[in-house]
């Protein structure tokens, strides 16, 4: 009888549903307790946990009229140590919207000063330390000048049969800006054109402008533009010299000669400039042996006994003016008198 009653209870649908509901409530309570109870604990731990963080290589924002003043001695970057609630530090590092700034340097004016650095836009819940927090700087008035640029080039690197001409720059001058004390030290502004030996062709390139003091120290100034295009023409060496006319041969009896150049009075020499350094003229010889009356002749320019040299032109036109000498004129008058007597 008892066994049958138990089976009836289990077969009752409502009894089964009630048992299932109770089990579900128990499971829900267990899961809720495990998850939400632990999560709340973790959040509380995160809020209450303190943390420190070090941030390196932070640039410094200069609070100054940089169009009017120039500052030196300020480091490019500093290190920042921050401490506080972990949650605030995580947000701060993620946003990265804080800055290292100087005090208002315009209020200090020119001179040597100790400047205090501070952090801007940092949560009040955090404490911080800047390393270094104070720096010694010098503030000077900014000066701007315009100056020409010298081209430094070793002309000895050019082959002896060639010569370098005046450099051609895309900018003849540059703008120099810097502290007054530095600008006053400027001794030369130049570009250096590097070269190899035995140059035989034009050089062209872009080169950095150098600014130095008298002791050849590079100066901390702003150069605009910082680079300049330079072209150095290299051409075959040429030298122009006059022509010297020389009469040769045996003159016709009773005749005298005057030589003059018809057109060209100079020639152009090319070749090794060291060999041509002592050449001041070229010679043209005119043979008058068979010339009896005024005439124009073509004569050759005597070649130079120098290796690798040339002359242009190689021939010139020479006017040969012929005149009778006094003996010839007397002889002619005597012949005329004799002829007249014979005719009588």
From TrEMBL:
Signal peptide residues on this chain, from the entry's feature table: none
Record keywords, A-Z: Membrane, Transmembrane, Transmembrane helix
Location of region: Disordered: 322-344
The keyword Nucleus appears for this protein: no
Ranges annotated as spanning the membrane: 12-32
InterPro entries linked to this entry: c-di-AMP_regulator (IPR053154), YbbR (IPR012505)
PANTHER family hit by this protein: CDAA REGULATORY PROTEIN CDAR
Name of the protein in its database record: YbbR-like domain-containing protein
Species, as recorded: Jeotgalibaca porci
Lineage per the UniProt record: Bacteria, Bacillati, Bacillota, Bacilli, Lactobacillales
